[in-house]
Design brief:
The chain is of the alpha/beta class. The protein is built from 15 helices and 19 strands. Helix 2 runs parallel beside helix 3.
Length: 436
């Protein structure tokens, strides 16, 4: 498995996300782009469309080195192993894939079969993410899941035997869930041997069956104070078990973090392939574009067959927009966001005064601070040397992270940090676009 990248190099990373849009059943809390087709789907047709859209992306971005590949959905474990193998082989023909690159597939327990998992492993998949969601049968039924706890445990056992690494998801802050009930359930999860867990608080997403029930008062989830208690318990128990949080909802033994998700959160580039996929591509001219594809699977396939891709949006991102996205993603991480990397990339960073203000409000934490005052910068020039003639000195920017309530108001933190920025001196031979 390739080593975790240093954050300053994250802008050089490139990943591929493949979205498989089909599910056996739509869960009532889910707002992902997933579709049920009781009559099945034309898998060879979709395979050809995936390969063609990959060709189009290669023509746009040129040579890259693939750091990670992720099959998400939907339920990608409904794909035939031969389909996964064909996609991976095609990616390897288009771009060099790093030795030991992380290749993940999502799976639902009810679609797990030992032979199918073995087929994915033979195809090149080395990590599986299993959507368990709960370890109580009655709660699984309430969440609209098709599997039982026994099936979930069996799927985890098969994953442990088959893949280099595995992870599974749980949802907490469910209706009526008590602190003690979650403590017991989480302890069971931690005893199941995974070195990575994704633990999500239940959120009510618009336009879902749960949203309608919630609006009618028929679905009541824990209030904000109880949700915060559940969150704090989650952090304490996972840390004590050696799986501390490295992102708001993701926990891992050090070195077992999801490389692909870190690529997102560290603001690397990635191709989003398939119906409803989003991507962030860096073009050969240095411009970064946001892409989105047609959400309806059949319309997406038809568009790819006609135009070579299913993109419905291709938006060039300004330096301001990129900086906002970089802040929003990076503030999710326990390691924080390296504002020095932002300064090198864009030529500006959040103002020191605003950072200090948010720190006083206990919303962010400054993890290091090496921003010399102007007198110190002038002193560094040296006696008898004109500051204008000297090599520009670039003060080190801090690393910051969201803490406390700040973890739950990331959009507001980004808004505050974006409104007040200051230019940062750019060393000679380094290009950056300054905010005007």
């Amino acid at each position: 498995m390739s080593a975790l990248p240093e954050r300053p190099d994250a802008d050089k990373l490139f990943g591929v996300y493949i979205h498989w849009p089909f599910c056996a059943q739509k869960c009532p809390y889910c707002d992902f782009n997933s579709h049920v087709r009781f009559g099945g789907w034309d898998e060879p047709r979709f395979l050809n469309a995936y390969l063609r859209e990959l060709d189009t992306v290669k023509a746009r971005v040129g040579n890259q080195e693939v750091y990670s590949i992720f099959f998400g959905g939907g339920t990608p474990s409904l794909m035939q192993p031969a389909t996964v193998a064909a996609i991976l082989d095609h990616i390897a023909k288009l771009w060099p894939v790093q030795p030991g690159a992380e290749i993940t597939i999502e799976a639902n327990p009810n679609s797990v079969e030992a032979d199918r998992f073995a087929g994915y492993r033979t195809a090149g998949v080395n990590r599986v993410s299993i959507g368990v969601q709960a370890l109580r049968d009655d709660e699984l039924k309430r969440l609209g899941r098709l599997h039982s706890v026994t099936e979930a445990r069996t799927a985890i056992d098969i994953a442990r035997r088959t893949f280099d690494r595995f992870t599974f998801d749980l949802i907490y802050a469910r209706p009526g869930q008590t602190i003690n009930a979650w403590r017991t359930e989480l302890a069971e999860a931690l005893s199941m041997g995974s070195e990575h867990l994704s633990l999500y608080q239940l959120t009510i997403e618009p336009d879902t069956p749960f949203a309608e029930l919630h609006a009618r008062g028929k679905l009541i989830i824990p209030d904000s104070d109880r949700a915060l208690e559940l969150y704090a318990l989650t952090q304490d128990m996972t840390a004590a078990a050696g799986l501390p949080a490295y992102e708001i909802s993701n926990h891992a033994r050090p070195g077992q973090e999801s490389r692909h998700n870190l690529l997102y959160w560290r603001y690397g580039a990635y191709a989003g392939i398939g119906p409803g996929a989003h991507g962030r591509l860096v073009l050969p001219d240095g411009n970064r574009i946001a892409t989105a594809t047609e959400r309806n699977p059949e319309r997406w396939a038809e568009q790819v067959e006609t135009a070579g891709h299913g993109f419905t949006e291709e938006t060039k991102l300004s330096p301001d927009e990129q900086a906002d996205e970089m802040l929003l993603m990076g503030l999710r991480l326990t390691e924080g966001i390296d504002l020095d990397a932002m300064a090198r990339r864009f030529g500006f960073a959040p103002a020191a005064a605003e950072i200090a203000h948010l720190q006083k409000m206990s919303l962010i934490e400054i993890m290091n601070a090496e921003r010399p005052d102007p007198d110190h910068i002038r002193a560094c020039v040296g006696p008898g040397i004109s500051p204008a003639a000297a090599t520009p000195y670039t003060p080190r920017q801090p690393t910051i992270r969201a803490v406390g309530q700040g973890r739950f108001v990331l959009n507001e933190l980004v808004r505050r940090l974006s409104l007040k920025t200051e230019p940062v001196a750019v060393p000679i031979n380094t290009t950056a676009t300054l905010r005007t």
